[in-house]
Structures are given as structure tokens and as C-alpha cells.
Amino acid sequence: MRRYPRTGRGAVAPVAAIALLASACSPGSGPGGSGELDGVELTVAAKWTGAEEEGFRAVLDEFEAQTGASVSYESTGEDTGAYLGPKIEAGEPPDIAALPQPGLVDEYAERGELVPLSGAAATTLEEEYADYWQDLGTAGDETYGVLVKAAHKSLVWYRPDAFDEAGVQEPATWDDMVGTTSSTLSDAGITPFAMCGASGWTLTDWFENVYLSENGPESYDQLAAGELSWTDDSVVQSLETLADVWGEDDLMVGGRDGAVQTDFPSCVNQVYGQEDAAMVVEADFVAAPAREAGATVGENAVAFPFPAVGEDPPVVVAGDIAVAMTENEGVPELMAYLSSAEAQELWAEQGGYLSANSEVPTGAYEDEFTQGLAQTVLDAGEDVRYDLSDQVPSAFGATEGSGMWAILQDYLRDPGDPEGTAEELEQAASGS
User: Fold this and answer.
1) Is 196 contained in some domain?
2) 359-410 residue pLDDT tens
3) What is the mean pLDDT of residues 264-284?
4) Which range is the signal sequence, renumbered to this chain (predicted)?
């Protein structure tokens, strides 16, 4: 049976002894603080753009004000690996990178391209993050990263006014959503879904939620680990389930052709800006572009849990793991700051953000709706699962124009052959 080449991810390694004085492990005492890093220049790379980038820049601005360092931000685009590869080969990696896939932590750690976590950042990870979150930044018996930005990926965002106009309620099951809710919306002249098909990762989110709910955590884990073939009947069944929506042109803005040409966050604007659709399936970070479109989160931009396809509704999470790629001056201090409750509370205030740090109070989020989402991340139980496409090798699960992204885009264009699509997924997963 095929297994993906991965290092173990068992118990988190013992935290390294603190090697820096407390004053060197955290930023200064406040804005305009110690200036201990005057003249130090640092670079951080992450995939965030738009409102997400603006929120992160507010955090970097505060670090600069407290320490005197200068931090530049580089957007990697959707394919973080493709961005970092040439940088690493040229010997010019960013000082810190936010990796959107645990699989990338494994890959870079195996090649010796990451600096193990130590000092105040390691202490914060041990003391303020649950074991579930600590494990995500671990490769083999070493810890390299901290989950600095979490995402709740089992949400369906909607416009309450559209639901009220059609006379429908939040659905509890998949059949309710694609049957009663969608058909009633359509009858009222309201297109049910905006799709973000041009951003292939959003389609993997649809698949993962359906697969987890329909087949359960054990099969999900086996599929993620390469212990279950992608041609398995369970995969074919979930693809057939997706076709309940993906196969119906009138359920999505622009039909399938329009859906596969609409990226994230343009799909969010189709719901909350243009009001062309009632719903969009995507994570909590929809909040930021919804605000940009003029919506108020918790009032006219709300979400319900991804409905149960099988017995239980799914809970899929994802996130971005900060890792150090150099040992340059200032890197330990910035890693410590990014992992801290102080920085993440500021980040939470910007919107479009969830923290996995248990010391970040839910009151840091500006509305009750987001506060509730934040609590679900902190309370993640044993049935929650990390984004499957982010667990497999990035060449298969997280590369634009190939692997899962491209295959599911093709399936969205024409969902008439689930068995053939499953075979394509298997071939891509095995590298053949």
C-alpha cells in the first residue's frame, strides 16, 4: 500500500532551554520601546494579500515600533512552495515564512532548511497552545514552527436577507442545503452559491468537508496518509455527492464556466458586494473580504456549520505555521512576538483572523459571531481534522495548475465521471 514519505509527527519534542535573556526574547515594553533592534532588517513571507495582509502588517508595525527593527513583507501567492524554492536555491530565503501546509514543514525540515524553535517562542508554544496545535509545527522529533493563524474551514457563509426573502432557514444536513434551501432560493430568483473555482484550494475544502462527514475520521486519516487509494469507493461516492451542486449550472453564479473562472475573494464579493448569490462555502477568513464588500460580520454576513452529509457535521481546520529559515539577528525576537498572545490579540482586532493561542481572550474579536468561531478552534475535539490537501505532499495537494487543485477544477467543469476523476487523483497522488 502506498504511503506518502513523511517524517513522524508524534509527541512534541522537549522545549529547548531558553538561551536568550528575557529582554532579548520579546519586544520592548511598548511602542517606541527599547530600540534593541535598531538597524536590523528582517523579511517575512506569507500568502496573505488584501485585508489579510493589512491585518498582518498592523502586527509587524507594532513590532517595529517596539523594537526599532525594520520588517518587510513579501506575498508568496497561493503556491508558497513555488515562491520559496528559488529563494532557497539562491541562498536568500526569507527570515521567517508562514507555511500553509504541515507537509511543507516536513519537506523543508528534512532538507535542513528550517531553524528549530527555541527560546521564548518555544516556551510560549509549550505553555499557551494545546497539544493538537503544537504537533502541527513538528517534524520527526524536533519542533520548528508555531501556528500563528488558524482557520475554521467548515462554514457556509450567507446573506440573511436572501434567506428571509426566500423564506428558508439554515440547513442542518447536506440534503436540506442542496435540496430545500437551494431549490427554494432558486424559485425566488436568487442564485444559491458563489463558487471560487479559479482558486483550486477552495474546491479541496468542499471535498474534504464532504469526505470527512460522509466517511468519518478514520478513512479521512487513511486517505491523508496514503494508506487508502483515491480510487476507493468512498472517494467516488464523495465526488458523486459534490456533483449534487457542481453538476447544476443554475445553482451557481455564471454556471460551471463562471464558477471555474471566479477566484477567492471575488466569490465573496459576489455574495456581499454584488449580491448575485446567497451563499459561499469557505473559512472564517471570509470575514475580511465581506467587510471590504460593505457587509457587517454577525449581522448581514453570517455563517452556519457545513451541514452533515453523513451522521455528523465535519470540522476541518487549517492554518499558517510560522517557521524560521535563517538565524539572523532579530529572528528569535520576531518569532517570539508572532507566537505571543499580545501580537495575536492585536491581529484579532483587525478582523478576518482566528488564534490558536489559548491566552488570546475571545473578547479580542470585535463581534460575538467571530468570538464563537474562535472558541470552536480552541475547543477542537478529537474528531476535528486538519485540511487534508495541506497534509499530503505539496506537489499533489497544494500546487496551482496540478494535483488536486487542477483535477477538481476539471471535475467542476464536468462532474460526469467521478470514477475517472478518482483515477486521476490516484495517479497524481502516486506521482505517476
Assistant:
1) yes
2) 999 999 988 888 988 888 888 777 888 899 988 988 899 888 999 999 999 9
3) 97
4) 1-24
Nearby residues of 127 by Cβ (< 8 Å), 6 or more positions away: none
Tell me the pLDDT tens digit for each residue of 176-231.
999 999 999 999 999 999 999 999 999 999 999 999 999 999 999 999 999 999 99
Least confident of 119-123, 189-193, 295-299: 295-299
Q: What is the pLDDT of residue 1?
A: 33
In which residue are the cell numbers 520588517 written?
Answer: 71
179, HSE (Cβ side, Cα atoms, 13 Å) = 9
Residue 307 belongs to domain with CATH number: 3.40.190.10
**Rounded to two decimals, what is the model's pTM?**
0.79
Q: Say if residue 241 is in the same domain as residue 273.
A: yes
Are 96 and 73 in contact, with CB atoms under 8 Å apart?
Answer: no
**Which distant-in-sequence residues (6+ apart) come within 8 Å of 405 by Cβ?**
200, 201, 203, 204, 398, 399
Q: In whole angstroms, what is the distance from residue 47 CA to residue 74 CA?
A: 8
Q: Say how far apart CA 303 and CA 314 lie, in whole Å.
A: 15
Asked if 241 and 294 sit in the same domain, the reply is: yes
Residue 333 lies in a domain: yes
According to the model, what pLDDT value does residue 29 have? 36
Report if residue 255 sits inside a domain: yes
Question: In the sheet where 277-281 sits, what is the strand order?
Answer: 191-193, 277-281, 155-158, 302-305
Residue (of 202, 185, 347) closest to 266 by Cα position = 202
Helix, strand, coil percentages (3-state) for the chain, rounded to 5, are 50, 15, 40
For residue 199, give the C-alpha cell. 482558486
- Count of other CB atoms within 10 angstroms of residue 179: 13
Q: Please give the tally of structural domains in the chain.
A: 2
